Amino acid sequence: MDDSEPFTVETVLAPVDGSEESATAVEYAVAVADRYDASVHALFVLGRGVVRGMNAGTVDEEAIAADTQGFFDEIQAVAETADVPLVTAVDDGFSQTRKTRHPGNVVLDTADSIDADFIVLPREPVTDAASAEVLEKAAEYVLAYASQPVLSV
Questions:
Q1: Three-state DSSP class for 37?
Q2: What was the pLDDT predicted at 54?
Q3: From CA 101, how far away is CA 140, in angstroms rounded?
Q4: Residues 11-152, CATH architecture
Q5: Taking a C-beta distance cutoff of 8 angstroms, is the pair 123, 139 a contact?
Q6: Residue ranges per domain, the chain?
Q7: Any idea what DSSP says for residue 129?
Q8: 31: alpha, beta or left, given left = phi > 0 and alpha = psi -120 to 50?
């Protein structure tokens, strides 16, 4: 892109993990999409504990699905208010067999596969929370390696 080309956005990727910070990031993603007449693709990234628990059979997959759908319903309301199309997806943020699979590269791989023009994700919170959210650790990685513009909120 050079200075003579206008900046355009067709798809905004909003990685989420169910946290308040990621819900706030979706609000920003919807605002960007609204400004550029684009759509939002919300990617729910499952955490290490959830993935391990599902693989071991110790986590109720139906409960995880219900919680994830509940979060998607909340952000759908935000998108509908702005009349912005919203697509949702879920992916594992970790793998027990691939060391290179972590939330940061899941976000970047998804951005490439959906041809995202812009990424909005939560940054690490300034509080010292006992339970780290999934995307806290991904923000720095995405900021460093994304080929798309990134807004970290």
A1: coil
A2: 72
A3: 16
A4: 3-Layer(aba) Sandwich (3.40)
A5: yes
A6: 11-152
A7: -
A8: alpha
